[in-house]
Design a protein that fits this description.
elongated; about 0% helix; mainly beta; about 150 residues; PKAT_KLD; single chain; 5-stranded antiparallel beta sheet; integrin binding; 11 strands; Immunoglobulin-like; 3-stranded antiparallel beta sheet
């Protein structure tokens, strides 16, 4: 296939030539191509502004629950993903993604469970159809309490 193009009235004129395998003749196609570009703001910034341990009864103490209060700037997200990793943020231990509905202001609470005590790297990613933004934090979970 060979092709040539030229600019005319801010449209692109396309001409292509293809070999026809049945008879050795050529097929020419001419036409115009026009497209618009939409610029979207996207999610510009994500911040974890608070981490709070959820008090559990002794019968529920096998998992420590932590609430992460997250804010963002830019467009409103439609999903949130949390990656829990080792303290170096290199080895992923779990990934949880959920759809969210944020209607007015980008302020949400993300609750995650931790099966055992230790220090973890938390990556929280907010996304929509056109963008993603990430915030990270180190958290120490000690028998149901997080710092």
């Amino acid at each position: 296939t060979t092709g040539a193009s030229s600019i005319s009235d801010s449209s692109i004129t396309l001409q292509s030539m293809e070999d026809n395998p049945d008879g050795g003749c050529h097929i020419y196609r001419n036409g115009y191509y026009r497209n618009g570009i939409s610029v979207v703001e996207g999610i510009l910034e994500v911040n974890i502004i608070q981490m709070t341990s959820i008090q559990m009864t002794e019968s529920q103490a096998e998992n420590a629950l932590v609430d992460f209060v997250v804010t963002c700037q830019g467009s409103l997200p439609t999903d949130v993903c949390t990656v829990v990793s080792d303290p170096t943020c290199q080895v992923s231990k779990s990934v949880v993604c959920d759809p969210i509905v944020v209607t007015d202001e980008c302020l949400l609470t993300v609750r995650r469970a931790f099966e055992e005590s230790g220090t973890y790297c938390i990556n929280i990613t907010l996304g929509d159809d056109t963008s993603q933004a990430l915030a990270s934090a180190l958290i120490s979970v000690n028998g149901g309490e997080a710092t």
